UniProtKB/TrEMBL annotation:
<dbReference type="GO" id="GO:0016757">
    <property type="term" value="F:glycosyltransferase activity"/>
</dbReference>
<feature type="domain" description="Glycosyltransferase 2-like">
    <location>
        <begin position="7"/>
        <end position="109"/>
    </location>
</feature>
<protein>
    <submittedName>
        <fullName>Rhamnosyltransferase</fullName>
    </submittedName>
</protein>
<dbReference type="InterPro" id="IPR029044">
    <property type="entry name" value="Nucleotide-diphossugar_trans"/>
</dbReference>
<comment type="similarity">
    <text>Belongs to the glycosyltransferase 2 family.</text>
</comment>
<keyword id="KW-0808">Transferase</keyword>
<dbReference type="Pfam" id="PF00535">
    <property type="entry name" value="Glycos_transf_2"/>
</dbReference>
<keyword id="KW-0328">Glycosyltransferase</keyword>
<dbReference type="InterPro" id="IPR001173">
    <property type="entry name" value="Glyco_trans_2-like"/>
</dbReference>
């Protein structure tokens, strides 16, 4: 069984990204790095020292979906059976990949014969706590794995043999919602998505944390609000997207607008991105944000 990994970079913190790549290079058979940064990080990360690696640089930022597709297609051409996806800020122990692969095979034999993707439990780098979904419940739980509606992309192990049937990541979304949409689409085709209960990975969720009225919430870059709000409208048109996801996102939209316009810095910029996202979502516009909409 040949296992490859795809790591997506965008203006990474170099020591953090280097630690991830050094760790990962010891655990996989093929390593594909896709850099969406304006300036290439190849020399800074000393990537020439890795065996069986390939580096792609897209200075104009093709988005996370297209970047993942570049990596997945390379792994397929390289003869990999399984592909792992990682963001630049994920961290895990030696033995992580082997444990995930072992659980993948075991789960298909005993629990979920149509398992197509498996991800680790996530520990938030900010709170140091394991993140468990509060609304979307598990579909079925076994000893060391749960069947779930979706998992995030970072740490996701995919059986590449089924990629052609399910399809690649949806580059129309560009960034937000890409991982969940693919999982929902895979489930529409009759496959299962799993969450490993005893395999953990540290990951940054958002750019930081704030508290208001006793509630802790994630803080992200203002431009991400454009994609988050727009993609709610784009995904809500699709029949295979869960109803709870549609209801929850539309229900909390007024609260998110309030939070970003009152409690966070760059209020007017955030408001403009949210409004533009709502407008473009209602008009069914997709892909990267237009250059005219990027101006503060």
């Amino acid at each position: 069984m040949k296992i490859g990994a795809v790591v997506i970079l965008y203006k990474p913190e170099l020591n953090e990204a280097k630690a991830l790549l050094d760790n990962l290079a010891q655990q996989v058979d093929a390593l594909c790095i896709v850099d969406n940064s304006p300036e290439s990080t190849y020399s800074q990360l000393a990537l020439a020292g890795y065996e069986n690696q390939i580096f792609f640089h897209f200075p104009d930022n093709i988005g996370i979906a297209s970047a993942q597709n570049v990596g997945l297609q390379h792994l397929l051409k390289d003869g990999c059976d399984f592909g792992l996806l990682f963001d630049q800020d994920s961290q895990f122990d030696i033995g992580f990949v082997a444990k995930l692969a072992e659980l993948f095979q075991k789960s298909r034999q005993h629990y979920l014969p149509r398992l197509v993707a498996l991800g680790p439990s996530l520990m938030c780098s900010y709170t140091k706590k394991i993140v468990r979904p509060k609304i979307q419940t598990e579909i079925e739980q076994f000893d060391d794995i749960s069947s779930v509606p979706q998992i995030i992309a970072s740490g996701m192990m995919i059986d590449l043999h089924w990629l052609q049937q399910i399809g690649l990541k949806d580059d129309a979304l560009f960034i937000d919602g890409v991982d969940h949409e693919w999982c929902w689409r895979a489930r529409k085709h009759g496959f299962s998505v799993g969450l490993a209960l005893d395999i953990c990975m540290s990951h940054k969720l958002g750019d930081g944390r704030r508290r208001f009225a006793g509630i802790t919430y994630k803080v992200g870059a203002p431009v991400r609000l454009y994609y988050q709000f727009r993609n709610i409208f784009l995904l809500s048109r699709r029949s295979y997207v869960p109803l709870y996801w549609k209801f929850r996102n539309f229900a909390v939209m007024p609260l998110r607008i309030f939070t970003n316009c009152v409690l966070l810095p760059d209020r007017m910029m955030r408001l403009r991105y949210m409004l533009q996202g709502i407008i473009d979502g209602m008009l069914n516009r997709s892909g990267p944000i237009k250059a005219s909409a990027k101006r503060p």
